[in-house]
């Protein structure tokens, strides 16, 4: 099954964003989630522009 490049890129960003959550304390998790969400939003904006 061929996966679209956009899906593969999204999964890669998600995996990279989620990795620090495994080792973070409870206080750090909120900040990391905000960064991950922000990264996803920026990716979507760039995808629309490019």
Automatic annotation (TrEMBL):
Q: Which domain of life is it from?
A: Bacteria
Q: What is this protein called?
A: Uncharacterized protein
Query: Can you name the source organism?
Result: Pseudomonas fluorescens
């Amino acid at each position: 099954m061929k996966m679209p490049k956009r899906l593969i890129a999204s999964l890669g960003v998600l995996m990279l964003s989620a990795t620090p959550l495994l080792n973070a304390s409870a206080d750090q998790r909120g900040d990391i989630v905000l960064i991950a969400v922000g990264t996803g939003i920026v990716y979507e904006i760039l995808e629309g522009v490019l």
